[in-house]
Amino acid sequence: MLTILSTLLLVLPSLIGNTYALPQRNRNGGNANQGGTGQGKGQASTRVTTATDGSSILDTTVNVNGVPLRFKVSGPASEFTTLTSVTGASSAPNSTGKLGLNVLLHGDGGQSFFDFPNQAVQGNLMGVVVLAPSEQLLWGQRTGPPSGLSRPDGAADSQAVRDLVKQVLPQVIAFDPANVFFTGVSGGSLTLSGFFIPAHLSEFPNTGVLLMCGGLVPQVDVVDAAGFITNSKIHFQSTQQELELLQPAIPAAIKAYEALAAGQGLNARQIGALQTVDNTPNGGHCEFDEAGFSSGIQLISNNFASIMQGGNGAVQGINAKTVLKSVVGNENLKFAAAAA
């Protein structure tokens, strides 16, 4: 059976072009103001491994809009298409499956790509994680050293993620295109809130976006606000000791999206049902368990269904009855001093 790297060349020549492996990266970094060094030139060839729930993980690279995007997708073997090298794959390309997707954009430095905290099937969603196409592994910034909140390539990266989901993943795995959620971590949250949500979320209505430890006001024009702001869940999850540069940025993003909903005629109750916020944990950047970066992100990922899919927002490990607090009246988050 042909692998996806060779087969996609045949079935998607206009989109993919010459598909090739992206160099392996190291695991440095992990916040909105730090990036990995991008060292190492080993090739990340297509691999199939096993997820924490026993399902299959396909790790491969395709060329989207002239840029190599490495991604992992986790799901039952039978849901992968016959174009892939996954043992037991039996779905036809472009077929609709019963499960949806949770697509995660990692933080600066790429740690959550390698950790893959949203792997396995949860809440009828299969996990996808995408590696930023930059030497420093920064979403929204393809060249140069980390520059904090500035994401000059945010629009291009968001377009690439949109095209990956809409045009490439249907060749890889069968999923329900009406059930695609998104998760951001730190720099990934900046790109989602600043660029992807305003430009593309109307193409994924009635789902939602989980923004961990990061947020930006829309940096591009909002496309069809009524198509998503009136039906999409947006949750902002932060901590007490958030990074200094994010402490004003996250509240500003909250206010911007609340205003967008109000502009479409939603009242306070309706807005609060869709847009929620919490920064209860007394931890540093992304330390939602008050212990560590990766473990904190894993905690929230493990509770995705409770937060994003109609649950009560209770997260064991966070000292709050619920993290689903309405943004209305909670726009001006109170932070402690940022962690050293």
From TrEMBL:
Keywords: Signal. Residues 32-41 have a biased composition (Gly residues). Residues 1-21 form the signal peptide. The keyword Signal applies. The keyword Signal applies. Residues 23-51 are annotated as: Disordered. This is Cyclin-like f-box protein. The lineage of its organism: Eukaryota, Fungi, Dikarya, Ascomycota, Pezizomycotina.
